[in-house]
Amino acid sequence: xxxxxxxxxxxxxxxxxxxxxxxxxxxxxxxxxxxxxxxxxxxxxxxxxxxxxxxxxxxxxxxxxxxxxxxxxxxxxxxxxxxxxxxxxxxxxxxxxxxxxxxxxxxxxxxxxxxxxxxxxxxxxxxxxxx
Length: 131
Known about the structure:
The protein contains three helices and no strands. By secondary structure, it is mainly α. Helix 1 crosses helix 2. The radius of gyration is 51 Å and the shape is rod-shaped.
């Protein structure tokens, strides 16, 4: 709600109180300058509100954009980390499987050697006790 300041009415009141007409007009104009700024205050407040709202909207937009960028960056970092971990697990598993295969092969060789030694022992014992 804006109020109007009537300079003519004010000047007439000053003249009725005995102020010369020229001085009354100058007083009315000067007071209009002071009061006009005060009466225009609601428009200034509304303008300020709009500016603040625009700033907040811009800030929210920037924060949302930066958050989305951060989310994308973190997602890529996590994907890279998962890929690196998966690769390391696969590499470690392959090394372990190779070691297991090597140990199994050595066990087979040892079984053959042991089997051969047992067969020789049986042959020697048979010769000794059954000539």
